[in-house]
């Protein structure tokens, strides 16, 4: 199915079969009930004459449809088509997921993308049928709906956690869009936790290689910042901590923070960290027909772990140059011990720039690279959290003395979420390819999923 077009017959067949492969790719709106659903909704399939299909939940809501209380569109995994796109709309959607529109408004979002607000609106309407403001509003409403349904948070806390400026605005928006108030939704939502703890379900596409993702994160956990093993992952975030725990069909996210207004950002970054929105079938379809076929069959659902913070990942990549994973962890732990922000957070670029990094085991050249990198991010020359075109970000990284193609590609692979990034010159990849009898000319055959090819090879060792 094209990223820009929806074929009615294909969508209707998917809905009739409740095909989970299409969950998050489009939404089904029923004209007789004015409700929109996920393709996997267990309700009776509506007659085709009463159905409309929309690429985004915001498009369905703008057309006057309300989210289904049974299949709960707020639980859909993200559309993998948008997840891998590096164009303006794809980047803007990721920034909206990250709370960018809530903090800076659409004007601020456009400035970060270096385009006019009018041009951004035109691009959104052309591809989604609605503007970025409507998309941001739908994101807030769906997050609020999930919080009201799954948690015992007070309605006031839900309003601010979802990104609304006031409880009055929250109540009015929900009533206007959904036809019921937050309290009315909660009263009909069914069983939920009775306390004010904050646990959300992060749904994923199956198959999902839980063990592989959590083992990868555990082996690279930075002392003082992260605690991880094959069954859970915890880390410091602004105002507290988060814990991710795999469950049978989702990831449980437990949030313990003083201020929940950053919740949308936490959720979006956790999804990227765990690569929950990837399309394993599309990846396997390409890689499974190549020399990597046996590896793909052995590790179905393998993912590329992302990054909670782009600068943090870039520092990891620089520190990890030409040393073991264990050695890099030790050095990164020392950096965090000396330069951590209050609450044990990884230092921001401006803070690392002012920190004395001597005496930690880093070479002078490595320190100079880290300082130069931090300066460029602090000045806004490089954006590793979604605002900049990936190719431009990589070009900017390559201008930093001490950052070569391998480091830039590794950052692109994990922080910029480039599914086709390939860590040029990686010695482990070369050894694994040689052991498997795979020659360099096969690398081109793995496009556009070379990042996943790299993970299969790394994991095979």
Automatic annotation (TrEMBL):
UniProt-listed GO biological process terms: base-excision repair, AP site formation; DNA alkylation repair; methylation
CDD domains reported for this sequence: ENDO3c
UniProt KW Methyltransferase keyword: yes
UniProt keyword terms in alphabetical order: Activator, DNA damage, DNA repair, DNA-binding, Metal-binding, Methyltransferase, Transcription, Transcription regulation, Transferase, Zinc
Catalytic activity: Hydrolysis of alkylated DNA, releasing 3-methyladenine, 3-methylguanine, 7-methylguanine and 7-methyladenine
Any one annotated GO CC term: protein-DNA complex
Record-listed E.C. numbers: 3.2.2.21
EC category: hydrolase
Entry's Gene Ontology molecular function annotations: alkylated DNA binding; DNA-3-methyladenine glycosylase activity; DNA-7-methylguanine glycosylase activity; DNA-binding transcription factor activity; methyltransferase activity; sequence-specific DNA binding; zinc ion binding
Residue span, HTH araC/xylS-type domain: 90-188
Keyword Cytoplasm: no
Requisite cofactors: Zn(2+)
Protein name, per record: DNA-3-methyladenine glycosylase II
């Amino acid at each position: 199915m094209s990223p820009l077009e929806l074929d009615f017959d294909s969508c209707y067949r998917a809905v009739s079969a409740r095909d989970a492969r299409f969950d998050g790719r489009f939404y089904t709106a029923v004209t007789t009930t004015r409700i929109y659903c996920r393709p996997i909704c267990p309700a009776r399939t509506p007659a085709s004459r009463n159905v409309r299909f929309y690429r985004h939940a915001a498009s369905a809501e703008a057309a006057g449809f309300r989210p289904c209380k049974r299949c709960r569109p707020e639980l859909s995994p993200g559309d993998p088509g948008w997840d891998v796109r590096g164009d303006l709309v794809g980047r803007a959607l990721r920034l909206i997921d990250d709370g960018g529109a809530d903090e800076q408004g659409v004007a601020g979002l456009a400035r970060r993308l270096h385009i006019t607000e009018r041009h951004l609106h035109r691009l959104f309407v052309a591809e989604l049928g609605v503007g970025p403001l409507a998309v941001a509003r739908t994101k807030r409403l769906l997050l609020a709906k999930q919080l009201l349904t799954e948690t015992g948070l007070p309605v006031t806390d839900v309003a601010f956690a979802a990104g609304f400026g006031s409880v009055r605005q929250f109540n009015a928006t929900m009533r206007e869009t959904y036809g019921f108030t937050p309290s009315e939704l909660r009263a009909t939502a069914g069983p939920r936790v009775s306390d004010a703890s904050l646990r959300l379900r992060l749904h994923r596409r199956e198959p999902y290689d839980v063990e592989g993702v959590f083992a990868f994160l555990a082996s690279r956990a930075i002392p003082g910042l992260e605690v991880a093993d094959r069954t859970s992952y915890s880390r410091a975030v602004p105002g507290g901590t988060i814990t991710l725990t795999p469950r049978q069909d989702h990831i449980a996210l437990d949030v313990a923070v003083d201020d929940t207004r950053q919740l949308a950002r936490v959720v979006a970054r956790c999804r990227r960290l765990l690569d929950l929105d990837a399309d394993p079938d599309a990846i396997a379809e390409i890689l499974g027909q190549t020399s990597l076929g046996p590896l793909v069959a052995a590790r179905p659902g393998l993912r590329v772990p992302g990054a909670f913070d782009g600068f943090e990942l870039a520092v990891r990549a620089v520190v990890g140059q030409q040393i073991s994973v264990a050695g890099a962890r030790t050095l990164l732990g020392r950096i965090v011990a000396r330069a951590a922000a209050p609450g044990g957070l990884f230092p921001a670029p401006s803070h690392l720039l002012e920190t004395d990094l001597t005496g930690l085991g880093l070479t002078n050249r490595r320190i100079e690279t880290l300082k130069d990198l931090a300066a460029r991010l602090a000045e806004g020359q490089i954006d590793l959290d979604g605002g900049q075109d990936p190719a431009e970000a990589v070009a900017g990284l390559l201008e930093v003395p001490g950052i070569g193609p391998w480091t830039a590609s590794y950052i692109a692979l994990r922080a910029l979420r480039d599914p086709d990034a390939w860590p040029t010159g990686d010695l482990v990849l070369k050894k694994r390819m040689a052991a498997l009898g795979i020659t360099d000319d096969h690398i081109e055959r793995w496009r556009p999923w070379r990042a996943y090819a790299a993970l299969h090879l790394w994991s095979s060792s």
